[in-house]
Amino acid sequence: MFIGEVSKKTGLSVRAIRLYEEKGLIKPPKRQGRYRVYTQVDIEVLNLISEAKDLGVTLATLKNVIIYESGEVDWERIRRFLFEVRDQLKRDMQTIQIRIRRVERCIGAIDDCQVGLDSPPKGRD
DNA sequence: TTTCTAACA
DNA sequence: TGTTAGCA
């Protein structure tokens, strides 16, 4: 299929698809004349790239993960990478939870110091 | 109409 | 990334 259809199927812009090829994230598809012809595997890789992008994975990182072994995608490597991403996300979640508690402590400290906010303390001078 | 390359009010 | 120009 041509790039227009791939764009619709993956939700990626035609521009982005060509860019990923230029960056080496996908291998240059065969040409039918001067038009790029994509395969189902290309769609799958492109979908992966689309997902990873939303997950905050940089294109540079992806390039090291999507490796073509004799023209074939090493899905097992991608799978291992995905586990790493998941583990990192879990660690991030822990530090965020810790920060949430710290912020709540600050809020609590402020509340404790402003008990009389609604009725300003009377000066005792 | 769609795709291609190259380039940027 | 978008978008536009000028082709095929």
From TrEMBL:
Coiled coil: none annotated. Keywords: DNA-binding. Pfam families: MerR_1. Residues 1-68 form the HTH merR-type domain. PROSITE patterns: HTH_MERR_1, HTH_MERR_2. GO terms for molecular function: DNA binding; DNA-binding transcription factor activity. PANTHER family: HTH-TYPE TRANSCRIPTIONAL REGULATOR YFMP, REDOX-CYCLING DRUG-SENSING TRANSCRIPTIONAL ACTIVATOR SOXR. This is MerR family transcriptional regulator.
